[in-house]
Write a structure and sequence with these properties.
This is Beta-ketoacyl synthase. This protein is of the alpha/beta class. It contains ten helices and six strands.
């Protein structure tokens, strides 16, 4: 690939109050665990959630997860959003707008200068419950279609920045961020856009995911996630967001942007039939890795690190 897509900017928000790539890197170096008890300020039925641990047919629910402390914080006027509109916005949209803005700044781009740019926006996001019932007539009617819909995840960013390229949210469960990345890389490579923001966000508007995983006996018994370890007992849910600014290497060099890395290939696939829908298949994962290496022209022996998602 003579002019690969590169990462020119990045931004994150994670549990533990982390809101910069440097702080996240330090937390990884320090091997910090960013878990905490369930938030008591979201109106969640904590007692009901914890009580299912003793119910027949249910797994244990540990009082543990990775939660963003500032998920609800937002400055509506800064992003050109009315106060009433902001109240009905899912926190995922608020966090996505923040990290998109900071990803541009991280690349040395003034977010106010990109209006009219042929820039794309691809955001991985799964819907979670939030707020009151939507099928009612009240003062917030008319704002929920965007505020509670998936379309708002990417649409808010593109609208707020004035981008004119492709804009979409994708939901492929735990693979949503990489799916968004692949779509963005392909769009840049085929000139569907000059550059793109690509990333994902997860903010739990309700504890529904914990109830679901408790029924599947998939939650960690002691509230700690030990992926790939012999003593792993399950997973815990966590929140966070990450956003990348992607562009061709030639454009990045022309504009003097920092290059964090090159993306030589991106591929996705599906398990197909056989095992239950949520259970991965070794053959499918081997297949997509081989296809990606072939597309990138890389010898498997040259791979220095594999980052895995370990539920």
């Amino acid at each position: 690939m003579t002019d690969p897509v590169v990462v020119a900017g990045l931004a994150v928000e994670t549990p533990g109050g982390i809101d910069t790539p440097a702080a996240l890197w330090q937390a990884l170096c320090d091997q910090r665990e960013l878990l905490s008890p369930f938030p008591r300020d979201r109106g969640w039925p904590i007692d009901d959630l914890l009580s299912v641990s003793g119910a027949e047919g249910w797994g244990r629910v540990p009082d543990s997860g990775g939660f963003l402390s500032g998920a609800a914080k937002f400055d509506p006027p800064f992003f050109g959003i009315t106060h009433r509109e902001a109240l009905v916005m899912h926190p995922q949209q608020r966090v996505a707008m923040r990290v998109a803005w900071r990803a541009l700044e991280n690349a040395g781009v003034n977010p106010a200068s990109v209006e009219g740019d042929f820039g794309g926006c691809y955001v991985g996001m799964s819907m979670t419950e939030y707020g009151t019932r939507t099928a009612v007539a009240d003062e917030y009617s008319g704002h929920r279609a965007v505020g509670m819909g998936q379309l708002g995840g990417a649409g808010r960013i593109s609208h707020g920045l004035g981008l004119t390229g492709p804009s979409m949210c994708v939901d492929s469960a735990c693979g949503s961020s990489l799916t968004a990345l692949q779509l963005a890389v392909n769009a840049i490579a085929t000139d569907e856009c000059e550059w793109a923001l690509a990333g994902a966000v997860c903010v739990l508007g309700s504890p529904a995911a914990f109830f679901e995983f408790a029924k599947l006996h998939a939650l960690s018994e002691d509230g700690h996630c030990r992926a790939y370890s012999e003593d792993a007992t399950g997973t815990v849910w966590g929140e966070g967001a990450g956003m990348l600014l992607l562009e061709r290497e030639s454009r990045a060099r022309q504009l003097g942007h920092r290059i964090y890395g090159r993306i030589l290939a991106a591929r996705t696939n599906h398990n197909g039939k056989g095992k239950p829908i949520l259970v991965p298949r070794v053959h499918a994962q081997e297949q997509v890795v081989r296809k990606t290496l072939d597309a990138a022209g890389i010898d498997p022996a040259a791979v220095g690190m594999i980052e895995g998602h370990g539920t």
